[in-house]
Task: structure prediction
Amino acid sequence: MLIDSENCSLLIIDFQEKLASVMDSQRIQEVTLNTSKLIKGFTYFNIPILYTQQYTKGLGETVAELKNLLPFPHIEKTSFSCFREPSFIEALKIMKRKHIVLCGMEAHICVLQTALDLLDNNYSVTIVSDATISRSFKNHEEAMNFLSKKGANILPYESILFMLLKDAKNLLFKEISKLVK
Result:
């Protein structure tokens, strides 16, 4: 299934300061950069973006590199799955989008549980493999494999952005090309 700008939204899960501080430093830099490119790309296409924070009091705010690109408020949650948060469900209903592109932390906990709940509720799900992270690479890999078997698409951010473009004649081609360089 192609990702279409008219039917998808981006969900960034719990990309928070204290979580980021316990990740592999090189990997978190790469994942943060990829996520910022996703945000910019989705913004070019005017695609809705949601982002969550898990227990902000304990885990801190969304990392500054991303929060500066996200001027609207986050969705606060304590459940591991975003789908168990009423304000998230309400935001989904308002957007009327059935394909959710997911990235964030941690792949094997909040991303995994959210993706499973979305799939169980008839949403199409694409996980951005290189904009999703866990403290352990093995946990990340196992979560991606499991989610793939459950019906989620697993793709790198660049594939998603070019899928949205569909054609080099798209007016946003130059902007997206600059992002991925």
